[in-house]
Amino acid sequence: MGKVEAYRGDEPYVFVCYSHADSGVVYDDLLMLGGRGVRAWYDEGISAGARWRAEIAGALERSARVVFYVSPASLASPHCQREVDFALDRGLDILPVYLEPCELPSELALSLGSVQALFRYDDERYADRLVEACLAAPGVARRVGGHRPPARRRGLGWPVWVGGAVALVAVLFALWGPLMGARTGVSAPGGEAARPGVGDAQATYLQAQALLMRWDKGDNLAQAVSLYRQAIAVDPDFALAHARLSEALRMRYVLTGDRSYLDSAADSVARALALDDGLAAVQVAQGRLHLVEGNLDLATVAVERALAADPNDADANQAMAKLLERQGKLDEAEAAFQRAVALAPDNLVLRDSLANFLYRQDRYQDAADQWGMVIDAAPDHFGARVNLGAAFSGLGRNAQAIEQYEQAIAIRPSYMGYSNLGTAYWREERFEDAVAAFEEALAIDADDWLAWGNLAFVYTDMGGREIQADETFTHAIRLAEAGREQNPRDPWVHSDLALYYARQGDGELALRRLDTALALSPDSSEVLMAAGEVHELLGDRETAIDYINQAIAAGADSRQLTVNRVLKPLMSDPRLAAAD
C-alpha cells in the first residue's frame, strides 16, 4: 500500500483493522476518509515485535471506533483476529465493512452478527455511509467554525513580522488557483444527445469559470460558488462542476479561515471522485485539498494520478510544482511551474503561482516581472499589486512598494494590503503611518497574531510606547500560542513566538520555541535569521552571528540586515559573512 499518513494526535480517531492483502482497497478508503475530515489510524510504519504489539494495543484502546474490513484474507489473518478480539474484550465499538460476500466464523458471528455493517461491494452510497459512521463516533466529527488557517510566510498569504527579516509576503493571490480547463464528456455515450438540461449546466458552469478566474473582483468568488451549485442542480452527475465547486470553496476557506468552507469543499471533491476519479481535474482538486490540510503524502498521490490521467494538464503540473517545492526539489519545481504557464499562458493564477515561487527563492526581480505581466493583463487586480509591492520591498525599492500597496487598497481594501503597507511605512520610519495601517488591517481581521506582532514591533521602535508594545506583544503571543496548538508543526508560529518572547525578556520560552522552529525547518533562511535575532536580543552575539551566517548561506539576502534594527549593528562585525 502506498504511504498514507496515519493520525498521530490526541483527538479522537477511528482505528482501521484490515489485512494487507486488501491494502489497495483500504488505501482508497483512507484517501477518501482523509479528504472528508475523518481522522484514521492504521498500522503504518510500525516495526515488528513487542513495540508493534504495544502500539497496536495502545492505538486500539484510545480509538473511538474500530473499522474492521471483513474479507477472506482478514478473517484468516492472525493479526486481525487479535485486534478484533482485543476490541471486543475492551467493549470497543466495531463497524464491520464487508469487502466481498463472506461468512463470519461462529465466534465472531456471535459478537458482530447483530451489528449494523456496511457493504463496500454492493452499496452505491457506501462512501457517504462510511464517512457518516466514522464521524458519528464520539469526538471524531470534523471541527467547524471560524478558525483562521495557520499563518505561513511565503505560503498561504499572511504578512511576516516586521521586526525580523522583513521578508514581506503578500500572496493573497496564491491560492493554487481555479481549475480552468473545459468540461469533457458532455455528450452521452455513443454520440447520443446530451441529457435534457445538461447544456444549461454547461453554460452555467462556464460562467462560473470566468468569474473564478477573476476571484479578486467584487463578489465574483461567491457568485462562482452559486453558479457551480446551479449547474450541479441541473446535472447532479457533473463531476467537473463538483471539482470546481470544491476549488472555489477551498479558496474561500484560505481567504476567510472559516472551516465550514473546507468541510464543504471536502464533500464536493468526494462527490466528484465518486462520479469520475479518472479526471485529472478531480484529482488535482483532491490534491490541493490535502495540501491545505497538511497531508503531503495524500496530496502527492492525488496529483500523480492527475498527471497519469493527463500529463498536459496545466493545473496538474502546477500542483506537482508546489509539491516538489515542499520537498526541496527546487529545480524540478521551477521546471513544473514554467511548464504549467507554458501550457496555459493566459491563466493569471498560474502565472501568479510562478511569481510566488520565484519570490520564495528571493528572486525578487524575476517575481516582479511575472506580477507585472499579471497587472498588464488585469490592471485592476488588487492581489497582484499587493504581491508586486512585496517584490519591490525585497528589491529595496520601498517607494514603489508603497505605491503598489496604496493602489491595491484603492481598488479593494484588504487585510494584506494594509498590513504590508504598514511594514513598508515602518521601513521608512513613518511610524505613525505604520500604526494607522496596521490598525486598518486589524479592523478587517483582528485574529491574526502577525499583525499584532508587527504593531508591537513598531511601538517598540517609536520610543515612549513601551507599555503599549508590551501589551500588544502579550496579545500577539496569546493568538500565536492558540495557532501553535492548532498546528504544532508550523515552524513559523514557533519562530514568531520566539521573537515575541525574546522581546519581552522571557529567554527560556524564547529558546524553547526557537528550538522547535529549527527542528521543524532547519534549512529555512527565515527561521535561521529569526534565530540570529532571538540570540542577539538575549545578549548572545556569538550565537547570533553563527545563525545569521547560516541564514545567508541558506539564501537569505544580506540586505535584510540593513532594515532590521536589532541585527543592523552586526553588519560591522568581522565574523559576519555579510561584512566582507
From TrEMBL:
One of its GO terms (biological process) is signal transduction. The chain crosses the membrane at residues 158-179. Residues 10-138 form the TIR domain. Pfam families: TIR_2, TPR_16, TPR_2. Coiled coil: none annotated. TPR repeats lie at residues 280-313, 314-347, 415-448, 491-524. Keywords: Membrane, Repeat, TPR repeat, Transmembrane, Transmembrane helix. PANTHER family: CELL DIVISION CYCLE 16,23,27 (PTHR12558), CELL DIVISION CYCLE PROTEIN 27 HOMOLOG (PTHR12558:SF13). This is Tetratricopeptide repeat protein. It comes from Marinihelvus fidelis.
